[in-house]
Write a structure and sequence with these properties.
The protein is α/β, with parallel strands linked by helices. It is 50% helix and 15% strand. The protein has helices at 29-44, 67-71, 76-96, 112-119, 146-154, 156-165, 171-177, 189-201, 205-218, 223-239, 241-252, and strands at residues 5-10, 13-18, 50-55, 101-105, 109-110, 122-126, 130-132, 169-170, 182-184. The strands form two sheets. Strands 1-2-3-4-6-9 form a six-stranded mixed sheet, sandwiched between helices. Strands 5-7-8 form a three-stranded mixed sheet. Helix 1 (29-44) runs parallel beside helix 3 and helix 10 packs across helix 11.
């Protein structure tokens, strides 16, 4: 039996693939536990400098596998409580990871699948792919950090529109709204994601990691606090080998070559 999530590492690029194509990569307990494990593994692997998250088959991820909940109606409350906890651990690992994480959205990303895509730093969408909030159409509440990320990415008014109407969001609209970083022809979505990952891997992981942390925390910090965090971060960059290399390269008018380890 195949693993529900497959991790491969080639050079500095890690690829995490949802691997339940027969159910459009719906999330169940084993998949979510393995996803969390793989996120922690790549986060702590010094050789990994960029991560791609995608799905096998025709979908990115169709959301939680509700069949098991329907089959056990007396266990819905503990099952949802447990699944949400494991899902949220993966979201936290993605946001805390001081490495760029790219969602290669090769097909539908719905429900918790959309939440995981929103947690990533960049989203490369296939032209035929759609994003769908899905939860509220079935009387459920959004989770997976989607109520945190969505208004920060597209604003409160549009987030409420997504929550209230739950209309499918095309790749074209996602790009217009800022939900997608890039849109590619269906057959080239992984190629574009790989090219983006390779470009990001060449840059300073240390510098990016600090900026990612600063930006993520900025919505909850008053200006004075954010300025102090920035001062600490820029000072840390200046004494880090990447920062020293970058400044030396700037002075010498050459392209910097950053360390290949975190």
């Amino acid at each position: 039996m195949s693993d529900p999530v497959v991790l491969t590492i080639e050079g500095p690029i890690a690829r995490i693939v949802f691997n339940r194509p027969e159910v459009y990569n719906a999330l169940d307990g084993p998949l979510l536990h393995l996803l969390s494990d793989h996120c922690m593994e790549v986060a702590t692997n010094p050789k990994v400098r960029a991560v791609i998250l995608t799905g096998a088959g025709k979908a990115f991820c169709s959301g939680a596998d509700l069949r098991m909940l329907i089959a056990n109606p007396n266990q819905i409350e503990p099952a949802l409580y447990t699944l949400a906890a494991v899902l949220h651990q993966s979201v936290l690992e993605i946001r805390r990871m001081r490495k760029p994480v790219i969602a290669a959205i090769n097909g539908v990303a719905a429900g918790a699948g959309l939440a995981l895509a929103l947690a990533c730093d960049f989203r490369v969408m296939a032209k035929s792919a759609i994003l769908k909030q899905a939860y509220t159409s079935w009387g459920l509440c959004m989770d997976g950090g989607s109520t945190f990320m969505l208004p920060r990415l597209i604003g409160l008014a549009r987030a409420l529109e997504v929550a209230g109407m739950d209309a499918p969001i095309t790749a074209e609209k996602a790009l217009e709204w800022g939900l997608a970083t890039m849109v590619a022809d269906d057959e080239h979505v992984m190629e574009m994601a790989q090219e983006l990952a390779e470009a990001l891997a060449e840059r300073s992981q240390h510098g990016f990691g600090l900026v990612k942390q600063l930006l993520t925390n900025s919505f909850d910090s008053p200006l004075e606090v954010q300025l102090e965090h920035e001062r600490a971060a820029i000072t840390a960059c200046g004494t880090h080998p990447d920062g020293r290399e970058g400044m030396a390269a700037f002075a010498s008018k050459r392209k910097p070559v950053f360390h290949r380890e975190a």
